[in-house]
Design brief:
226 residues, alpha/beta, Rossmann fold, six-stranded parallel beta sheet, 13% strand
C-alpha cells in the first residue's frame, strides 16, 4: 500500500507500481477530503488486505505510523519516505495558514506555483515535473486542502511509536529535501530496531517522482526483507 502525501495522488508515485509489479501487488491511496490522520488510517485499514506492507510519503508517512499504531499485527513492513515524527513546530501554523489563504484567495494554481518549487531539487528534472505536479495540485480543491492542513496541524504524536516497530523498516529521503532531511531520518533510525536509511541523491521532498528508479530499488530491497 503506497500512501500519498499532502495534496498528492498517484502522480507522485510515478511508475513505481509498475517497477514493483513482479515483487508485490501494489495499490496507491490518496486522502482528498480527509480531515484527520486517524480517519486516513482507518480508510487504509478498511481497504487493505488482512496483512500488508505500507509505504507512506510525507503526510502519508504519518498515516502509515498511525496504521501501525492501530493494527500492528496487520502490518508486515513499514517504509517512511520524506517524512517526520515531530509535533507542530514554531511558525508552522503561520506558514500553513499563509498557503491556505493563498489557495482560497488566488486558487490552486497560485498555490502550486508557490508550494511546489521548494519541494524539489533544482535542475532539469524540476522543470520537467512542474506541469504534471501543478496539474495534480489543481485537481484538488481549497476545501480538501484545508481539511488536510487541519489533519497535519492536529496530527497525533508519533515519536513513541518508533521503538514499538518490529517489522522491516525503510527510512528514505532525498539529499536535497529541506522539509524532511536525511538527518531527520537518521534520528528516527536510532529509535527503530533494525531500520535502514536510504538517501536518494539529487532528489528533494518529492523523491518518488523525482528519482523513481532509485526509490524503486530501495523499495524492492525493503520488500525482499519482508
Amino acid at each position: 500500500m503506497l500512501l500519498s502525501g499532502l495534496l498528492c495522488d498517484e502522480t507522485v508515485w510515478a511508475d513505481i507500481p509498475l517497477r514493483l509489479e513482479d515483487a508485490a501487488d501494489v495499490s496507491v491511496l490518496s486522502f482528498g477530503g480527509f480531515s484527520s490522520i486517524a480517519a486516513m488510517a482507518e480508510h487504509v485499514l478498511a481497504v487493505a488486505p488482512e496483512r500488508f506492507a505500507v509505504a507512506g510519503h510525507s503526510m502519508g508517512g504519518r498515516v502509515a505510523l498511525e496504521v501501525l499504531r492501530s493494527a500492528p499485527r496487520r502490518v508486515s513492513g513499514l517504509a517512511l519516505l520524506n517524512t517526520n515524527v515531530h509535533t507542530v513546530r514554531d511558525g508552522e501554523l503561520l506558514s500553513r495558514g499563509r498557503l491556505l489563504r493563498l489557495a482560497f484567495e488566488q486558487g490552486m494554481s497560485a498555490l502550486a506555483a508557490e508550494w511546489l518549487p521548494p519541494m524539489m531539487a533544482d535542475g532539469a528534472r524540476k522543470a520537467e515535473l512542474m506541469p504534471c505536479l501543478t496539474a495534480m495540485v489543481e485537481r484538488a480543491t481549497s476545501d480538501s486542502y484545508a481539511a488536510q492542513v487541519s489533519a497535519m496541524l492536529h496530527r497525533p504524536e508519533a515519536l513513541s511509536v518508533l521503538p514499538t516497530i518490529a517489522v522491516p523498516t525503510l527510512l528514505l529521503s532525498g539529499s536535497e529535501d529541506a522539509w524532511s532531511p536525511i538527518s531527520q531520518h537518521e534520528t528516527m533510525r536510532r529509535r527503530i530496531p533494525h531500520a535502514t536509511v536510504f538517501e536518494i541523491h539529487g532528489a528533494g521532498h518529492m523523491a518518488p517522482i523525482e528519482r523513481p528508479g532509485a526509490v524503486a530499488v530501495a523499495l524492492r530491497e525493503w520488500l525482499a526483507k519482508i
